[in-house]
Amino acid sequence: MNNILEQCGDLLIKVREKQPLIHHITNYVTMNDCANVVLAIGGSPIMAMDKNEVEEIVSCSSALVINMGTLNENNVHSMVIAGKKANEIGIPVILDPVGVGATNFRRQTVRKLLDSVQFAIIKGNMSEIKTLAGVNVTSKGVDSNTDDIGKELIARNLANELNTTIVITGKDDIVSRGKEVVVIHNGPELLTKVTGTGCMTTSLIGAFASVADDFTIGGIAGVMLMGIAGELAYKMLLKDENVGSFRVKLMDCIAEFNEQTYIDNGNYVIAEK
Amino acid sequence: MNNILEQCGDLLIKVREKQPLIHHITNYVTMNDCANVVLAIGGSPIMAMDKNEVEEIVSCSSALVINMGTLNENNVHSMVIAGKKANEIGIPVILDPVGVGATNFRRQTVRKLLDSVQFAIIKGNMSEIKTLAGVNVTSKGVDSNTDDIGKELIARNLANELNTTIVITGKDDIVSRGKEVVVIHNGPELLTKVTGTGCMTTSLIGAFASVADDFTIGGIAGVMLMGIAGELAYKMLLKDENVGSFRVKLMDCIAEFNEQTYIDNGNYVIAEK
Amino acid sequence: MNNILEQCGDLLIKVREKQPLIHHITNYVTMNDCANVVLAIGGSPIMAMDKNEVEEIVSCSSALVINMGTLNENNVHSMVIAGKKANEIGIPVILDPVGVGATNFRRQTVRKLLDSVQFAIIKGNMSEIKTLAGVNVTSKGVDSNTDDIGKELIARNLANELNTTIVITGKDDIVSRGKEVVVIHNGPELLTKVTGTGCMTTSLIGAFASVADDFTIGGIAGVMLMGIAGELAYKMLLKDENVGSFRVKLMDCIAEFNEQTYIDNGNYVIAEK
User: Fold this and answer.
1) For burial by CB atoms within 10 Å, which of A14, A145, A213, C121 has the most?
2) % pLDDT > 70, chain B
3) How many CB atoms lie within 10 A of CB A148?
């Protein structure tokens, strides 16, 4: 796990070279942002969710991103068949279980997805990850305000249980594939005041995973890029500028990001077991 | 009804303190903007529209916003059951009957909603409100260009008939719960050239209503905040800037808004009966 | 075909005078952008896709834009009945067959649409247009990277076969109604790095077609406006600004566009037969 920042930079170079097609079955609220962030990072987004075509779309894609933000019965069905197809052809599947603790419908859906599909990376906030881990949580909608105790343990255990990479976003971000746990300190508070920054992070992770040998690095590259770009955009804000301008500059910073940006700004520690 | 501006400011403080969860069953065109505006004002948005989960979402929310912009049979059903649940647990329901005069499907839907759900606030343009009031109108899509005659009378009568607060947006905005009529003079013409400013106003009203004892003040706080933020954003436009930059600065101004902004910029009269 | 730039300018003046209602049955990813671009150009957008109301919406509209970006069975049905109604009442129908080569579902849908509806203008990238022309293509999602050879021939032949105006977007844009072929050289590369610029171009074409006697000019006016506005926005970018700011300035430039902007910046040739 040495040279993590260099490895992240290498993935970014690969994404820009290969322009991977990233298939999204995602929510209606932030899908435009997700498409734009994939373009900004050098990938090619496609949003397709009808059961009549998702298998074909998966077949020409390099990764599949499943986001549960605005579930309905139709897209659940599409998620399952697209996820199975992605497993079959060997492209990574990334899950963002948005608001999974909020309703029975979401909990049942995530159970069905976990039973049917092998995920390369699962990314959520602490509340969502705890729900997956079977910990009882009181979810206040899609946000999480639970404490940090046990965060690293939960990530590691769930990664082992599901044989996947777990990314937990929050004040600090945590990435683990069951052994080491990487804690990332990038990302300003203002990112939580713009809708879709979480979904965009998942899309970035999808783009990186599509060219990664090691999904831990893919997860780190995505979550850290959003954090650093957020910090850079925040520093650029002028007087009277707030979330509107921040969102614009965030997208600028993502498009301007290069491998040196990781090295100059990346801030992480590898936690002891 | 004294100190209206101070009461609006108090509601804004309360929203920022309580961060109420505002459940939206809304249209696909502007849902991203609506989520961002709720975050900018200090609330927490959730967009969920599937019949399998809307009652649970309502149950952990502080207000329900129903927007008819892109109706289909599925979301109509969700609107009815979510609205009934909201009434049952006592959280305010806000209706934005977008383009209700345009089609039979919309008129039938609004009739079903009015028969099933008690609304705290209904917000529309003159054409939409006239349709609700049973006045024959020729709707040109979702916009209204009818004259102002009788505006105040229509607002007061419809508020009494439906036992609700009526907000009519236009060059001037009108708010009434059946007795006094408050006429608000804030808001630049350019607001009509950005899609979703009407929907965002409804989302703001939802956030304010969630913490209001008096829904008239909730309605005023929402519509006036959008008007004032629009004026401030308009003044900030540089040479060659137009709707693109206006939209960004509008969101900045909404996030920067505080109780003093109401007092410095609010412009209204209370009309005589 | 003299004075093409003046004719484009005349159409722009007409759109701003008449404020035509442009009905969209379009994709969920970019519908907000499409609504905003129609407003910026002086038109009035309406997005409605339920089978229960599309015929009524068409009946009060001046053009119908059908965009296949996020197909599902419900909106395919709505596209067919809305398209037939538009033909019946004589308003132009514009088709954007997004990603048509990607799946059987899309190819079958476009076949159904072409069999049921007479289109005034069909706009796609080379890959999409080749699919319509029955040329075998390997589509990489919704983008096209095929060569330019035969572009003009394909446009002219397909226009004749389908009795429509064909617009092919790419590095150069091509417009033909079967005889002359107009090649437009406006538009910076960066337009391909923002999602929805293609969909927005189709919406612009819809607005222009709604007031045009000659759909070739309608197609040219739309595609050239996006190209020129892109060039102007690109020139305005400051250091560290990229796709985020570009998108904002693009919308500014579209709203600031006037008939002189065509004359000062339009760059085209009429290709020999």
Assistant:
1) C121
2) 93
3) 12
